[in-house]
Design goal:
The protein is an alpha+beta fold and 578 residues long. The protein has 19 helices and 12 strands. The N and C termini lie far apart (97 Å). 39% of the residues are buried.
Length: 578
Amino acid sequence: MLLDQRIRSAQSRSQTIVSFKLSAPGRRRWLIFMKRPHVVFIESQGQVGKIRATMSTQHMIRSSDGVGFTVLSQTGDHLEARSLTIKTFFLSAAIIGINLLINLTSPVTAFPYDDFVLIDGIWRTVEGQHVGIDYHDAIGFWLSHIGAAWWRIIGPDRGVLALTSATFSIIIMLCASFVLANRLWFLPRYCLLIGAVLAFEASAPSVYGWSVFMTGMAGYYNRLSVAALAVLFLQFFTGQRTRSHTGLVVECGTAAILLNILFLVKISAFILGIGIIATSTLALRLRSFSSTAKMLMVLFLILIIIVATDFVIAGTNPSDFLLTYQAAAATKLSPVSGNSIDRIFKSWSLVVSVLLLVMYARRPPAIPRSALVTVIGAYAVIQLCLNVSNTQPETIFLAPACALALLSWCPPSEPERSNQAPRRHWLRKSPMAVLPGVMCLLVLVPQMASAAFGLALAVSVASGFEAPIYISAEKGVSVPVVGALGDAGRAELFGQPSPKGVPVAWALGYNQPYDSMLQERELVGDACIVMLPMRPTRVVKGSTELIIAAAESILAVSFNLVGDDDYWKIYRRKDGCR
Protein backbone atom coordinates (compact mmCIF):
# COMPACT_ATOMS: atom_id res chain seq x y z
CA MET A 1 0.00 0.00 0.00
CA LEU A 2 1.01 3.58 -0.62
CA LEU A 3 0.92 4.38 3.08
CA ASP A 4 3.09 1.38 4.00
CA GLN A 5 5.64 2.48 1.40
CA ARG A 6 5.70 5.95 2.89
CA ILE A 7 6.14 4.57 6.41
CA ARG A 8 9.03 2.34 5.35
CA SER A 9 10.56 5.30 3.57
CA ALA A 10 10.17 7.41 6.69
CA GLN A 11 11.74 4.72 8.88
CA SER A 12 14.71 4.47 6.51
CA ARG A 13 15.23 8.19 6.84
CA SER A 14 16.41 7.90 10.50
CA GLN A 15 12.87 7.12 11.69
CA THR A 16 11.55 10.49 10.59
CA ILE A 17 7.93 11.08 11.65
CA VAL A 18 5.60 11.23 8.65
CA SER A 19 2.34 13.15 9.10
CA PHE A 20 -0.77 12.92 6.91
CA LYS A 21 -3.93 14.96 7.10
CA LEU A 22 -6.84 12.66 6.26
CA SER A 23 -10.49 13.62 6.00
CA ALA A 24 -12.66 11.03 7.76
CA PRO A 25 -16.46 11.02 7.38
CA GLY A 26 -17.78 13.67 9.70
CA ARG A 27 -14.40 14.63 11.24
CA ARG A 28 -10.91 15.71 10.16
CA ARG A 29 -7.93 13.98 11.79
CA TRP A 30 -4.16 14.14 11.82
CA LEU A 31 -2.53 10.71 11.82
CA ILE A 32 1.10 10.45 12.85
CA PHE A 33 2.68 7.03 12.38
CA MET A 34 5.74 6.09 14.43
CA LYS A 35 8.26 3.28 14.07
CA ARG A 36 6.06 0.67 15.81
CA PRO A 37 3.22 -0.20 13.40
CA HIS A 38 0.61 -0.83 16.09
CA VAL A 39 1.02 2.47 17.92
CA VAL A 40 -0.91 5.37 16.48
CA PHE A 41 -0.87 8.96 17.64
CA ILE A 42 -4.08 10.79 16.81
CA GLU A 43 -4.80 14.47 17.12
CA SER A 44 -8.56 14.99 17.08
CA GLN A 45 -10.23 18.36 17.65
CA GLY A 46 -7.08 19.76 19.15
CA GLN A 47 -6.55 16.91 21.64
CA VAL A 48 -3.70 14.43 21.27
CA GLY A 49 -4.26 10.83 22.35
CA LYS A 50 -2.19 7.67 22.15
CA ILE A 51 -3.94 4.39 21.48
CA ARG A 52 -2.85 0.85 20.64
CA ALA A 53 -4.78 -0.64 17.73
CA THR A 54 -4.84 -3.89 15.78
CA MET A 55 -5.81 -4.40 12.17
CA SER A 56 -9.18 -5.83 13.22
CA THR A 57 -10.19 -2.65 15.05
CA GLN A 58 -8.83 -0.16 12.55
CA HIS A 59 -10.95 1.48 9.87
CA MET A 60 -9.57 2.29 6.44
CA ILE A 61 -9.84 5.89 5.32
CA ARG A 62 -9.27 7.02 1.75
CA SER A 63 -8.86 10.63 0.84
CA SER A 64 -6.96 12.81 -1.60
CA ASP A 65 -4.12 12.83 0.93
CA GLY A 66 -3.62 9.08 0.96
CA VAL A 67 -4.86 5.86 2.50
CA GLY A 68 -4.52 4.92 6.16
CA PHE A 69 -6.06 3.26 9.16
CA THR A 70 -7.62 5.03 12.09
CA VAL A 71 -9.68 4.36 15.19
CA LEU A 72 -11.54 6.71 17.48
CA SER A 73 -9.37 8.56 19.94
CA GLN A 74 -10.22 7.37 23.43
CA THR A 75 -8.58 10.41 24.94
CA GLY A 76 -10.72 12.68 22.81
CA ASP A 77 -13.89 10.81 23.85
CA HIS A 78 -12.89 11.09 27.50
CA LEU A 79 -12.45 14.84 27.18
CA GLU A 80 -15.76 15.17 25.36
CA ALA A 81 -17.50 13.20 28.13
CA ARG A 82 -15.89 15.38 30.76
CA SER A 83 -16.95 18.50 28.89
CA LEU A 84 -20.51 17.20 28.61
CA THR A 85 -20.53 16.36 32.33
CA ILE A 86 -19.45 19.90 33.23
CA LYS A 87 -21.99 21.51 30.88
CA THR A 88 -24.83 19.37 32.19
CA PHE A 89 -23.97 20.03 35.82
CA PHE A 90 -23.61 23.80 35.47
CA LEU A 91 -26.86 24.03 33.50
CA SER A 92 -28.61 22.04 36.22
CA ALA A 93 -27.00 24.07 38.99
CA ALA A 94 -28.15 27.31 37.35
CA ILE A 95 -31.74 26.01 37.15
CA ILE A 96 -31.67 24.85 40.78
CA GLY A 97 -30.22 28.20 41.87
CA ILE A 98 -32.95 30.17 40.09
CA ASN A 99 -35.68 27.97 41.53
CA LEU A 100 -34.12 28.33 44.98
CA LEU A 101 -34.33 32.11 44.78
CA ILE A 102 -37.96 31.85 43.67
CA ASN A 103 -38.82 29.47 46.53
CA LEU A 104 -37.14 31.81 49.02
CA THR A 105 -38.98 34.92 47.86
CA SER A 106 -42.32 33.71 46.51
CA PRO A 107 -45.29 33.30 48.88
CA VAL A 108 -47.08 29.99 49.31
CA THR A 109 -50.32 29.60 47.36
CA ALA A 110 -51.21 26.02 48.35
CA PHE A 111 -51.06 23.78 51.42
CA PRO A 112 -49.21 26.11 53.85
CA TYR A 113 -50.01 23.62 56.62
CA ASP A 114 -47.56 21.18 55.04
CA ASP A 115 -44.77 23.75 55.34
CA PHE A 116 -45.29 23.89 59.10
CA VAL A 117 -45.39 20.10 59.38
CA LEU A 118 -42.08 19.88 57.50
CA ILE A 119 -40.55 22.68 59.58
CA ASP A 120 -41.65 20.88 62.76
CA GLY A 121 -39.32 17.93 62.04
CA ILE A 122 -36.44 20.36 61.49
CA TRP A 123 -37.36 22.22 64.68
CA ARG A 124 -37.28 19.00 66.69
CA THR A 125 -33.85 18.11 65.32
CA VAL A 126 -32.48 21.55 66.21
CA GLU A 127 -33.73 21.05 69.79
CA GLY A 128 -31.92 17.73 70.07
CA GLN A 129 -34.70 15.25 69.41
CA HIS A 130 -34.01 12.10 67.38
CA VAL A 131 -36.35 10.54 64.85
CA GLY A 132 -37.26 6.98 65.81
CA ILE A 133 -36.49 7.74 69.48
CA ASP A 134 -38.19 11.02 70.46
CA TYR A 135 -40.63 11.16 67.58
CA HIS A 136 -41.63 9.28 64.45
CA ASP A 137 -41.73 10.63 60.93
CA ALA A 138 -42.77 8.79 57.77
CA ILE A 139 -40.53 11.11 55.74
CA GLY A 140 -36.81 10.33 55.67
CA PHE A 141 -34.87 11.56 58.68
CA TRP A 142 -32.10 13.33 56.73
CA LEU A 143 -34.49 15.95 55.42
CA SER A 144 -34.77 17.27 58.98
CA HIS A 145 -31.02 16.98 59.60
CA ILE A 146 -30.06 18.93 56.48
CA GLY A 147 -32.77 21.45 57.35
CA ALA A 148 -31.41 21.70 60.89
CA ALA A 149 -27.94 22.41 59.53
CA TRP A 150 -29.33 25.29 57.47
CA TRP A 151 -31.36 26.46 60.51
CA ARG A 152 -28.13 26.79 62.50
CA ILE A 153 -26.62 28.83 59.65
CA ILE A 154 -29.46 31.24 58.76
CA GLY A 155 -31.61 30.96 61.88
CA PRO A 156 -35.30 30.06 62.14
CA ASP A 157 -36.71 30.80 58.73
CA ARG A 158 -39.06 29.02 56.34
CA GLY A 159 -36.22 29.17 53.79
CA VAL A 160 -34.63 26.11 55.42
CA LEU A 161 -37.08 23.97 53.42
CA ALA A 162 -36.02 25.46 50.09
CA LEU A 163 -32.34 25.18 51.02
CA THR A 164 -32.82 21.54 52.04
CA SER A 165 -34.47 20.81 48.71
CA ALA A 166 -31.70 22.60 46.80
CA THR A 167 -29.00 20.67 48.69
CA PHE A 168 -30.44 17.31 47.72
CA SER A 169 -31.17 18.55 44.19
CA ILE A 170 -27.53 19.53 43.64
CA ILE A 171 -26.32 16.11 44.79
CA ILE A 172 -28.83 14.35 42.53
CA MET A 173 -27.84 16.44 39.52
CA LEU A 174 -24.13 15.91 40.18
CA CYS A 175 -24.80 12.17 39.93
CA ALA A 176 -27.02 12.78 36.90
CA SER A 177 -24.24 14.66 35.10
CA PHE A 178 -21.91 11.65 35.27
CA VAL A 179 -24.67 9.26 34.25
CA LEU A 180 -25.93 11.34 31.32
CA ALA A 181 -22.47 12.05 29.90
CA ASN A 182 -21.66 8.32 29.89
CA ARG A 183 -25.06 7.01 28.80
CA LEU A 184 -26.10 9.67 26.26
CA TRP A 185 -22.68 10.61 24.85
CA PHE A 186 -24.00 10.18 21.30
CA LEU A 187 -26.75 12.80 21.81
CA PRO A 188 -25.26 15.81 23.62
CA ARG A 189 -28.28 18.03 22.98
CA TYR A 190 -30.64 15.47 24.43
CA CYS A 191 -28.22 15.09 27.32
CA LEU A 192 -28.51 18.78 28.14
CA LEU A 193 -32.29 18.71 27.60
CA ILE A 194 -32.90 15.81 29.99
CA GLY A 195 -30.51 17.47 32.44
CA ALA A 196 -32.74 20.55 32.44
CA VAL A 197 -35.84 18.37 32.83
CA LEU A 198 -34.39 16.55 35.85
CA ALA A 199 -33.25 19.81 37.47
CA PHE A 200 -36.76 21.27 37.16
CA GLU A 201 -38.34 18.04 38.38
CA ALA A 202 -36.23 18.23 41.52
CA SER A 203 -36.53 21.94 42.31
CA ALA A 204 -39.49 23.65 40.57
CA PRO A 205 -41.54 25.99 42.82
CA SER A 206 -44.93 24.35 42.24
CA VAL A 207 -46.29 21.66 44.55
CA TYR A 208 -45.44 18.27 43.05
CA GLY A 209 -48.17 17.03 40.74
CA TRP A 210 -50.46 20.04 41.13
CA SER A 211 -51.15 23.09 38.98
CA VAL A 212 -48.36 25.48 38.01
CA PHE A 213 -50.19 28.13 40.05
CA MET A 214 -49.97 26.14 43.29
CA THR A 215 -46.59 27.01 44.79
CA GLY A 216 -45.07 25.90 48.07
CA MET A 217 -42.78 23.29 49.59
CA ALA A 218 -45.50 20.71 50.21
CA GLY A 219 -44.41 17.35 48.82
CA TYR A 220 -40.93 18.53 47.83
CA TYR A 221 -39.59 15.14 48.94
CA ASN A 222 -41.66 13.62 46.12
CA ARG A 223 -39.82 15.83 43.63
CA LEU A 224 -36.47 14.69 44.98
CA SER A 225 -37.40 11.01 44.93
CA VAL A 226 -38.77 11.02 41.37
CA ALA A 227 -35.70 12.89 40.07
CA ALA A 228 -33.36 10.37 41.72
CA LEU A 229 -35.43 7.49 40.30
CA ALA A 230 -35.23 9.01 36.81
CA VAL A 231 -31.42 9.15 37.01
CA LEU A 232 -31.28 5.52 38.18
CA PHE A 233 -33.64 4.60 35.34
CA LEU A 234 -31.26 6.11 32.78
CA GLN A 235 -28.21 4.57 34.41
CA PHE A 236 -29.58 1.01 34.35
CA PHE A 237 -31.91 0.93 31.33
CA THR A 238 -29.91 2.61 28.58
CA GLY A 239 -28.64 0.44 25.72
CA GLN A 240 -25.25 -0.98 24.93
CA ARG A 241 -23.75 2.07 23.25
CA THR A 242 -22.51 3.20 26.65
CA ARG A 243 -18.93 4.43 26.76
CA SER A 244 -17.96 4.44 30.38
CA HIS A 245 -15.23 6.96 31.10
CA THR A 246 -15.46 6.36 34.82
CA GLY A 247 -14.29 3.41 36.84
CA LEU A 248 -16.43 0.76 38.50
CA VAL A 249 -16.19 2.47 41.88
CA VAL A 250 -17.49 5.76 40.46
CA GLU A 251 -20.32 4.00 38.60
CA CYS A 252 -21.37 2.05 41.68
CA GLY A 253 -20.79 5.03 43.94
CA THR A 254 -23.15 7.15 41.85
CA ALA A 255 -25.89 4.50 42.08
CA ALA A 256 -25.26 4.04 45.81
CA ILE A 257 -25.60 7.78 46.47
CA LEU A 258 -28.89 7.91 44.57
CA LEU A 259 -30.21 4.88 46.48
CA ASN A 260 -29.09 6.48 49.74
CA ILE A 261 -30.96 9.67 48.90
CA LEU A 262 -34.09 7.62 48.24
CA PHE A 263 -33.60 5.79 51.54
CA LEU A 264 -33.22 9.08 53.39
CA VAL A 265 -36.10 10.84 51.63
CA LYS A 266 -38.83 8.28 50.98
CA ILE A 267 -38.65 4.57 51.76
CA SER A 268 -41.20 3.50 49.13
CA ALA A 269 -39.08 5.20 46.44
CA PHE A 270 -36.02 3.34 47.77
CA ILE A 271 -37.84 0.05 47.16
CA LEU A 272 -38.57 1.17 43.59
CA GLY A 273 -34.88 2.05 43.13
CA ILE A 274 -33.87 -1.45 44.16
CA GLY A 275 -36.47 -2.74 41.71
CA ILE A 276 -34.84 -0.77 38.86
CA ILE A 277 -31.46 -2.37 39.52
CA ALA A 278 -32.94 -5.86 39.93
CA THR A 279 -35.00 -5.60 36.72
CA SER A 280 -32.06 -4.34 34.68
CA THR A 281 -29.78 -7.05 36.04
CA LEU A 282 -32.20 -9.95 35.48
CA ALA A 283 -33.97 -8.88 32.28
CA LEU A 284 -31.48 -6.90 30.18
CA ARG A 285 -28.26 -8.68 31.14
CA LEU A 286 -26.02 -5.91 29.81
CA ARG A 287 -22.98 -7.38 31.55
CA SER A 288 -21.50 -10.83 31.96
CA PHE A 289 -22.35 -12.78 35.10
CA SER A 290 -18.98 -12.11 36.71
CA SER A 291 -19.13 -8.38 35.88
CA THR A 292 -22.68 -8.15 37.22
CA ALA A 293 -21.78 -9.93 40.45
CA LYS A 294 -18.78 -7.65 40.93
CA MET A 295 -20.83 -4.55 40.21
CA LEU A 296 -23.59 -5.52 42.67
CA MET A 297 -21.07 -6.42 45.35
CA VAL A 298 -19.29 -3.08 45.08
CA LEU A 299 -22.56 -1.12 44.84
CA PHE A 300 -24.16 -2.59 47.96
CA LEU A 301 -20.92 -2.47 49.92
CA ILE A 302 -20.70 1.28 49.24
CA LEU A 303 -24.41 1.67 50.04
CA ILE A 304 -24.07 -0.13 53.39
CA ILE A 305 -21.11 2.06 54.34
CA ILE A 306 -22.99 5.25 53.42
CA VAL A 307 -26.18 4.25 55.27
CA ALA A 308 -24.20 3.24 58.37
CA THR A 309 -22.51 6.65 58.26
CA ASP A 310 -25.95 8.31 58.02
CA PHE A 311 -27.10 6.61 61.23
CA VAL A 312 -23.89 7.46 63.09
CA ILE A 313 -24.00 11.14 62.11
CA ALA A 314 -27.72 11.45 62.88
CA GLY A 315 -27.40 9.65 66.23
CA THR A 316 -30.47 7.61 65.32
CA ASN A 317 -31.36 4.20 66.69
CA PRO A 318 -31.57 2.02 63.54
CA SER A 319 -34.05 -0.49 65.00
CA ASP A 320 -36.55 2.18 66.13
CA PHE A 321 -36.13 4.08 62.90
CA LEU A 322 -36.61 0.99 60.74
CA LEU A 323 -39.88 0.27 62.57
CA THR A 324 -41.08 3.70 61.47
CA TYR A 325 -40.02 2.97 57.90
CA GLN A 326 -41.68 -0.43 58.03
CA ALA A 327 -45.01 1.16 58.95
CA ALA A 328 -44.58 3.83 56.26
CA ALA A 329 -43.70 1.24 53.61
CA ALA A 330 -46.67 -0.94 54.56
CA THR A 331 -48.92 2.09 54.25
CA LYS A 332 -47.60 3.14 50.86
CA LEU A 333 -47.69 -0.38 49.46
CA SER A 334 -51.14 -1.10 50.88
CA PRO A 335 -53.65 -1.85 48.09
CA VAL A 336 -56.21 0.43 49.73
CA SER A 337 -53.81 3.29 50.42
CA GLY A 338 -54.91 6.63 48.97
CA ASN A 339 -57.85 5.14 47.06
CA SER A 340 -55.30 3.21 44.99
CA ILE A 341 -57.75 1.16 42.95
CA ASP A 342 -59.60 4.26 41.85
CA ARG A 343 -56.34 6.00 40.96
CA ILE A 344 -55.19 3.03 38.89
CA PHE A 345 -58.27 3.15 36.69
CA LYS A 346 -57.94 6.92 36.25
CA SER A 347 -54.28 6.88 35.14
CA TRP A 348 -55.08 8.07 31.62
CA SER A 349 -51.96 10.15 31.09
CA LEU A 350 -49.82 7.16 32.02
CA VAL A 351 -51.72 4.90 29.62
CA VAL A 352 -51.36 7.40 26.76
CA SER A 353 -47.64 7.85 27.43
CA VAL A 354 -47.10 4.07 27.42
CA LEU A 355 -48.93 3.71 24.08
CA LEU A 356 -46.85 6.49 22.52
CA LEU A 357 -43.63 4.95 23.80
CA VAL A 358 -44.59 1.56 22.34
CA MET A 359 -45.33 3.18 18.97
CA TYR A 360 -41.99 4.97 19.10
CA ALA A 361 -40.10 1.79 19.95
CA ARG A 362 -41.76 -0.23 17.15
CA ARG A 363 -41.11 2.25 14.36
CA PRO A 364 -38.36 1.20 11.91
CA PRO A 365 -35.69 0.44 12.83
CA ALA A 366 -37.37 -1.23 15.81
CA ILE A 367 -35.46 -1.82 19.02
CA PRO A 368 -35.12 -5.39 20.37
CA ARG A 369 -38.40 -6.73 21.74
CA SER A 370 -36.85 -7.71 25.07
CA ALA A 371 -35.57 -4.16 25.62
CA LEU A 372 -38.95 -2.70 24.60
CA VAL A 373 -40.89 -4.85 27.06
CA THR A 374 -38.42 -4.37 29.90
CA VAL A 375 -37.90 -0.61 29.61
CA ILE A 376 -41.53 0.39 28.96
CA GLY A 377 -42.85 -2.19 31.43
CA ALA A 378 -40.52 -0.90 34.16
CA TYR A 379 -41.58 2.69 33.42
CA ALA A 380 -45.29 1.80 33.60
CA VAL A 381 -44.97 -0.09 36.89
CA ILE A 382 -42.72 2.47 38.62
CA GLN A 383 -44.72 5.49 37.48
CA LEU A 384 -47.97 3.79 38.51
CA CYS A 385 -46.55 3.01 41.95
CA LEU A 386 -45.50 6.65 42.36
CA ASN A 387 -48.92 7.89 41.29
CA VAL A 388 -50.77 5.46 43.55
CA SER A 389 -48.61 6.01 46.64
CA ASN A 390 -48.83 9.82 46.46
CA THR A 391 -51.89 11.88 47.26
CA GLN A 392 -51.11 14.35 44.46
CA PRO A 393 -52.56 14.14 40.94
CA GLU A 394 -50.84 11.65 38.67
CA THR A 395 -47.70 12.61 36.74
CA ILE A 396 -45.52 11.18 33.96
CA PHE A 397 -42.24 12.54 35.33
CA LEU A 398 -40.39 9.33 34.40
CA ALA A 399 -41.53 9.43 30.75
CA PRO A 400 -38.56 11.52 29.47
CA ALA A 401 -36.08 9.09 31.03
CA CYS A 402 -37.95 6.16 29.48
CA ALA A 403 -38.03 7.78 26.03
CA LEU A 404 -34.29 8.47 26.04
CA ALA A 405 -33.56 4.98 27.33
CA LEU A 406 -35.49 3.62 24.33
CA LEU A 407 -33.58 5.95 22.02
CA SER A 408 -30.32 4.48 23.26
CA TRP A 409 -31.52 1.02 22.17
CA CYS A 410 -32.22 2.11 18.57
CA PRO A 411 -29.81 0.56 16.04
CA PRO A 412 -26.94 2.98 15.34
CA SER A 413 -27.06 5.12 12.26
CA GLU A 414 -24.52 4.80 9.45
CA PRO A 415 -22.11 7.37 10.89
CA GLU A 416 -22.08 5.45 14.19
CA ARG A 417 -21.39 2.17 12.39
CA SER A 418 -18.22 3.76 11.02
CA ASN A 419 -17.39 4.98 14.53
CA GLN A 420 -18.06 8.58 13.68
CA ALA A 421 -20.21 11.23 15.25
CA PRO A 422 -23.93 10.45 14.86
CA ARG A 423 -26.23 12.48 12.67
CA ARG A 424 -29.22 14.34 14.01
CA HIS A 425 -31.60 11.66 15.21
CA TRP A 426 -34.52 14.06 15.46
CA LEU A 427 -34.46 14.73 11.68
CA ARG A 428 -35.75 11.31 10.71
CA LYS A 429 -38.72 11.13 8.37
CA SER A 430 -41.06 9.46 10.88
CA PRO A 431 -43.01 11.96 13.06
CA MET A 432 -42.57 9.58 15.99
CA ALA A 433 -38.82 10.27 15.89
CA VAL A 434 -39.37 13.50 17.83
CA LEU A 435 -41.17 11.70 20.71
CA PRO A 436 -38.20 11.83 23.14
CA GLY A 437 -38.06 15.60 22.73
CA VAL A 438 -41.83 15.87 23.05
CA MET A 439 -41.82 13.83 26.25
CA CYS A 440 -39.13 16.05 27.70
CA LEU A 441 -41.07 19.19 26.80
CA LEU A 442 -44.34 17.83 28.22
CA VAL A 443 -42.67 17.64 31.61
CA LEU A 444 -40.34 20.62 31.27
CA VAL A 445 -42.75 23.32 30.05
CA PRO A 446 -45.17 23.17 33.04
CA GLN A 447 -42.25 23.26 35.47
CA MET A 448 -40.81 26.29 33.69
CA ALA A 449 -44.25 27.90 33.76
CA SER A 450 -44.45 27.35 37.53
CA ALA A 451 -41.06 29.03 37.91
CA ALA A 452 -42.25 31.97 35.82
CA PHE A 453 -45.42 32.23 37.91
CA GLY A 454 -43.45 32.05 41.15
CA LEU A 455 -41.08 34.74 39.93
CA ALA A 456 -43.97 36.99 38.90
CA LEU A 457 -45.61 36.44 42.29
CA ALA A 458 -42.39 37.27 44.13
CA VAL A 459 -42.00 40.49 42.11
CA SER A 460 -45.64 41.36 42.76
CA VAL A 461 -45.20 40.98 46.52
CA ALA A 462 -41.89 42.88 46.53
CA SER A 463 -43.42 45.77 44.59
CA GLY A 464 -46.45 45.97 46.88
CA PHE A 465 -49.07 44.91 44.33
CA GLU A 466 -49.81 41.75 46.32
CA ALA A 467 -50.06 41.65 50.12
CA PRO A 468 -49.60 38.16 51.55
CA ILE A 469 -50.92 36.98 54.89
CA TYR A 470 -48.12 35.90 57.23
CA ILE A 471 -48.86 32.80 59.29
CA SER A 472 -46.38 32.58 62.14
CA ALA A 473 -45.23 30.14 64.77
CA GLU A 474 -42.78 30.73 67.62
CA LYS A 475 -39.04 31.08 67.09
CA GLY A 476 -39.64 33.62 64.30
CA VAL A 477 -40.83 31.17 61.63
CA SER A 478 -43.46 32.70 59.36
CA VAL A 479 -44.91 31.65 56.02
CA PRO A 480 -46.31 34.26 53.59
CA VAL A 481 -49.53 32.97 52.05
CA VAL A 482 -51.47 34.21 49.03
CA GLY A 483 -54.70 32.53 47.97
CA ALA A 484 -54.21 29.56 50.32
CA LEU A 485 -55.59 26.79 48.14
CA GLY A 486 -56.05 23.40 49.73
CA ASP A 487 -56.00 23.30 53.52
CA ALA A 488 -55.12 26.78 54.74
CA GLY A 489 -58.06 26.61 57.16
CA ARG A 490 -56.22 24.09 59.32
CA ALA A 491 -54.31 25.72 62.15
CA GLU A 492 -53.25 22.94 64.49
CA LEU A 493 -49.63 24.06 64.63
CA PHE A 494 -50.01 27.81 64.35
CA GLY A 495 -48.58 29.61 67.37
CA GLN A 496 -47.43 26.40 69.05
CA PRO A 497 -43.89 25.75 70.28
CA SER A 498 -42.02 22.62 69.35
CA PRO A 499 -43.48 19.93 71.64
CA LYS A 500 -41.43 17.92 74.11
CA GLY A 501 -43.86 15.09 74.82
CA VAL A 502 -45.02 12.16 72.71
CA PRO A 503 -45.84 13.55 69.25
CA VAL A 504 -48.89 12.32 67.39
CA ALA A 505 -49.62 12.68 63.69
CA TRP A 506 -52.23 10.87 61.65
CA ALA A 507 -52.60 10.91 57.91
CA LEU A 508 -54.54 7.87 56.86
CA GLY A 509 -53.22 6.59 53.55
CA TYR A 510 -50.00 8.51 54.13
CA ASN A 511 -48.36 7.27 57.33
CA GLN A 512 -51.20 5.03 58.50
CA PRO A 513 -53.15 2.46 56.45
CA TYR A 514 -56.85 3.17 56.11
CA ASP A 515 -57.67 -0.10 57.82
CA SER A 516 -55.25 0.39 60.74
CA MET A 517 -56.46 0.15 64.35
CA LEU A 518 -55.20 3.24 66.14
CA GLN A 519 -54.30 2.81 69.81
CA GLU A 520 -54.48 5.45 72.54
CA ARG A 521 -50.80 6.34 72.30
CA GLU A 522 -51.15 6.80 68.55
CA LEU A 523 -54.27 8.92 68.94
CA VAL A 524 -53.51 11.29 71.82
CA GLY A 525 -50.03 10.45 73.09
CA ASP A 526 -49.49 12.27 76.40
CA ALA A 527 -51.45 15.33 75.27
CA CYS A 528 -52.98 17.58 77.91
CA ILE A 529 -55.40 19.28 75.52
CA VAL A 530 -57.15 17.64 72.56
CA MET A 531 -59.07 19.71 70.00
CA LEU A 532 -61.41 18.05 67.54
CA PRO A 533 -62.38 20.08 64.44
CA MET A 534 -66.10 20.13 63.75
CA ARG A 535 -65.71 21.61 60.28
CA PRO A 536 -62.65 19.96 58.72
CA THR A 537 -61.66 21.00 55.24
CA ARG A 538 -62.54 18.81 52.28
CA VAL A 539 -58.95 17.60 51.97
CA VAL A 540 -58.93 15.91 55.40
CA LYS A 541 -62.63 15.39 56.09
CA GLY A 542 -62.64 11.62 55.55
CA SER A 543 -59.57 10.99 57.72
CA THR A 544 -60.82 13.34 60.46
CA GLU A 545 -64.17 11.55 60.74
CA LEU A 546 -62.44 8.17 61.12
CA ILE A 547 -60.07 9.52 63.78
CA ILE A 548 -62.82 11.23 65.77
CA ALA A 549 -64.85 8.03 65.79
CA ALA A 550 -61.85 6.08 67.10
CA ALA A 551 -60.98 8.72 69.73
CA GLU A 552 -64.42 9.21 71.30
CA SER A 553 -64.18 6.27 73.73
CA ILE A 554 -60.66 7.27 74.85
CA LEU A 555 -61.63 10.91 75.33
CA ALA A 556 -64.72 9.92 77.36
CA VAL A 557 -62.58 7.94 79.83
CA SER A 558 -59.46 10.08 80.20
CA PHE A 559 -60.57 13.62 79.30
CA ASN A 560 -63.16 16.23 80.29
CA LEU A 561 -64.99 18.31 77.71
CA VAL A 562 -64.14 21.95 78.49
CA GLY A 563 -65.24 23.68 75.30
CA ASP A 564 -67.78 23.04 72.57
CA ASP A 565 -68.93 25.27 69.69
CA ASP A 566 -69.66 25.01 65.98
CA TYR A 567 -65.96 24.78 65.11
CA TRP A 568 -64.15 22.88 67.89
CA LYS A 569 -64.58 20.45 70.73
CA ILE A 570 -61.86 20.95 73.35
CA TYR A 571 -60.91 18.27 75.87
CA ARG A 572 -58.57 18.46 78.90
CA ARG A 573 -56.95 15.44 80.56
CA LYS A 574 -58.65 14.50 83.87
CA ASP A 575 -55.49 13.75 85.84
CA GLY A 576 -53.89 17.06 84.93
CA CYS A 577 -51.04 17.91 82.63
CA ARG A 578 -47.57 16.57 83.26
